[in-house]
Design a protein that fits this description.
Order of helices and strands: HHHH
Structural class: mainly alpha
Strand content: under 5%
Number of helices: 4
Radius of gyration: 30 Å
């Protein structure tokens, strides 16, 4: 079976040549790699801040829970070894959690400041907003335990 001439000629033609990709200069390649490195460092800083937030949040919530639990035991008439122990334990854990949150936020702020030298970054970052809010909540809990508001 013989193919028509139009198909035979199309069969013999080589595929159209693709244009080679434009060559990038070493400066362009270095700039692209630097941008990617800044992105990776920024994501690592976000992950570190979120780890600070998790740790601080668990300390704050555990401190407040211990405070309320021991306060409830003392109110129910059960004698505690030290009447100030619920308050002291709650203050200690809540204060440590709040300090951890502040330290993590400050560390993150300095990292962002370093990265802003390489690329323009917005300071309105979700992890930074959460860290500041959690710092304020921790401070509120600490003050509430001191003045026995809650």
């Amino acid at each position: 079976m013989e193919l028509p001439a139009s198909l035979r000629s199309a069969e013999r033609r080589p595929p159209p040549a693709k244009a080679p990709p434009p060559e990038q200069t070493s400066n362009e390649l270095a700039e692209e790699r630097t941008t990617l490195a800044v992105d990776r460092t920024l994501m690592a800083a976000d992950r570190s801040l979120m780890a600070w937030i998790r740790t601080a949040l668990s300390m704050i919530s555990f401190g407040f829970t211990i405070y309320k639990l021991l306060q409830g035991l003392a109110a129910s008439g059960n004698a505690l070894a030290n009447a100030g122990s619920p308050r002291t334990m709650g203050l200690f854990l809540t204060g440590m959690g709040t300090l951890a949150m502040v330290f993590g936020t400050v560390e993150y702020w300095y990292r962002l400041d370093d990265l802003r030298q390489h690329r323009q970054l917005s300071l309105v970052r979700p992890s930074l907003i959460i860290a500041v809010l959690m710092s304020l909540i921790g401070l509120f809990m600490f003050v509430a335990i001191i003045f026995r508001v809650l």
